[in-house]
Write a structure and sequence with these properties.
4-stranded parallel beta sheet; globular
């Protein structure tokens, strides 16, 4: 069944692919932009108007949802592979939700520094993520040959069942401002 009431102003999704269509921003109204009030805008005296995109209206409720969705859409193999990402926050949560909604793929693993707090690890597990701990800094240089991102790139290259999207050097994220303009 298609979107019920499309054209009648209803925003209802049903059928076996309802969640997938709901997560697809092309099926949703544009996210609202709201002008920041003068008292919160330090540049208002210079005639600069600032608008905020209300991402709380997006199903994943965070700013990383749209770049994560773009990364998955531009890597079709992510539908059937184990998705790995060096992240302990919004990006990997968004990847997990989108991979599950779009492809039914619940095989997403967050590579997280062993310095992460236990309650933060529990939150990742609550969203169904697998956790792999590594030693070292949380914020590493993307092309450090000894860093986690380089290790994940090598892992994905060596194992055809692994997909590493690489948020820190992925064209679908690096221009994330452009990624937000579409929706």
């Amino acid at each position: 069944m298609e979107n019920m009431g499309q054209g009648e102003g209803l925003n209802v999704f049903s059928g076996t692919d309802a969640v997938s269509r709901y997560f697809d921003p092309d099926n949703l109204p544009l996210l609202p932009l709201v002008e920041i009030p003068s008292k919160l805008n330090p540049l208002r005296n210079e005639k600069v108007r600032i608008y905020a995109k209300m991402l709380t209206a997006h199903p994943a409720l965070n700013v990383k949802a749209l770049p994560a969705l773009n990364m998955l859409r531009h890597e079709p193999s992510a539908a059937s592979k184990s998705v790995v990402e060096a992240s302990s926050g919004s990006t990997v949560l968004s990847l997990a939700m989108a991979a599950r909604a779009l492809y039914g793929n619940d095989n997403v693993c967050a590579y997280v520094t062993n310095k992460k707090q236990p309650d933060q690890l529990r939150l990742l597990r609550l969203f169904g993520l697998k956790i792999a701990l590594y030693g070292g800094l949380a914020q590493q240089e993307p092309h450090d040959p000894k860093g986690i991102m380089s290790r994940l790139r090598r892992l994905a290259k060596a194992d055809e069942n692994i997909c590493y999207l690489g948020q820190y050097d992925n064209d679908q994220v690096s221009g994330s401002a452009r990624r937000h303009m579409r929706w």
